[in-house]
Amino acid sequence: MADDQFDLDGAVAVVTGGTRGIGRATALVLGRAGADLVVVGRHTRERPHPHSPGFVEDAVDELTAAGIEAIGVAADVSDQAQVATIVERTMEWRGRCDVLINNAAYPANGGLLEVPARRWQTGFQVQVSSPLQLCQAFLPGMFERGRGRVVNVSSGASQALLPALAMYSVSKLAMERWTEYMDFELGGRGVSFNTLRVDQLVPTEGWRLTYELRGEDAATGGKGLSEFVSPEECGEFLAWMVRQRPSWSGQTVGFADLRQLQAAAAAR
Predict the structure, then answer these.
(1) Which of 98, 146, 173, 202 lies at a C-alpha separation of 20 to 30 Å from 226?
(2) Where would I find the H helices in the chain?
(3) What H or E segment, with its residue span, contains residue 194?
(4) Which of 98, 141, 96 is nearest to 9 (CA)?
(5) Is 254 helix (H, G, I), strand (E, B) or coil?
(6) Residue 253, SS3?
(7) Predicted confidence (pLDDT) at residue 184 exceeds the cutoff of 50
(8) What pLDDT score does 48 carry?
(9) Which is nearest to 98 in space by CA: 38, 34, 31, 148?
(10) Spatial distance between the Cα atoms of 231 and 228, rounded to a whole number of angstroms
(11) pLDDT mean across residues, the chain
């Protein structure tokens, strides 16, 4: 590994939305590369989701079975007090966070006059304010060590006008702009800030639930079924982004962008 790349061996990584889909796959990829994992999710065996699978305990069991050091934190990132618990548990366990993957999401599909204002507030809390809260807690330590990575997971919905996805689209666009501002104000200190824009369909458990309950248009934003990218491939993409030199920062990249970047790097 080049000297200016990020070595995941022994790093402490916090992954929100880590109990299923992209988050769970990413935690496994990072753990296999040597990171210790803090897996964050809302649902536990005692407090399951009424329709969708994925418990904090299951994600931790999968990681530990693979020989990966991991703890789970049951927290709803729409609640500031519970976000603070993520920080407390992480610091108690390892005393630092080196990699922060903000993957939790809150779609709340519906028309502009149907989605109440409180759900807009929740969407912006999950997609912008809580990631900022985690950064405000973890970044001072990253800057002191001169080493850290923040990667936010956005959506192709940020770039389109899609039926019943206004809140999700707008809040994800805000996430992308916020990430650029993080680099603008705080870049150049050994910590990078980047965004993965999930701009192709990823068949996660949450996506399948939307498809089953609301139909194809709601699940695809009216774009129809097309080529899928697996959660595991998303995890590999995110790990690749984490490994890049700290000067590679302030980037928002989709899957095609990443494939081109990886091909160019392999050709060097």
Answers:
(1) 173
(2) 21-32, 56-65, 80-93, 117-124, 130-145, 166-186, 205-214, 216-220, 231-243, 255-267
(3) strand 191-198
(4) 98
(5) coil
(6) strand
(7) yes
(8) 57
(9) 148
(10) 9
(11) 90
Distance CA 64, CA 58 (A): 10
Residue 211: its pLDDT value, please? 58
Which residues is 93 bridged to in the sheet? none
Handedness of CA 177, 230, 82, 142 (dihedral sign): negative
Q: At residue 243, does pLDDT exceed 70?
A: yes
The pLDDT, as a whole number, for residue 236 is: 97
Check if the beta carbon of residue 2 is closer than 8 Å to that of residue 245.
Answer: yes
Residue type present at position 123:
G
Find out whether 138 and 97 touch, Cβ atoms under 8 Å: yes
> With bands split at pLDDT 50, 70 and 90, how would you rate the model's confidence at 208?
low
State the angle between helix axes of 130-145 and 166-186 in degrees (0 to 180), rounded to the nearest 10: 20
d(CA 101, CA 48): 23
Residues written for the chain: 268
Closest CA to 6 of 158, 213, 148: 148
- Structure confidence by residue, pLDDT tens digits, 112-164: 999 999 999 999 999 999 999 999 999 999 999 999 999 999 999 999 998 88
Instruction: Could you please state the CATH topology (level 3) that the domain comprising 12-262 is classified under.
Output: Rossmann fold (3.40.50)
**Residue 34 parent element (H or E):** none
Q: Which residues contact 266 (CB under 8 A, 6 or more apart)?
A: none
Radius of gyration of the chain (CA): 17
Whether pTM > 0.85 for this model: the answer is: yes
Measured distance CA(105)–CA(49) in Å, rounded: 15
Question: What average pLDDT score do residues 176-181 get?
Answer: 98
Instruction: Give the pair of three-digit tokens for residue 172.
Output: 């994800």
* Residue 36 structure tokens: 């210790």
Contact indicator for 19, 61 with CB cutoff of 8 Å: no
SS3 category, 154: strand
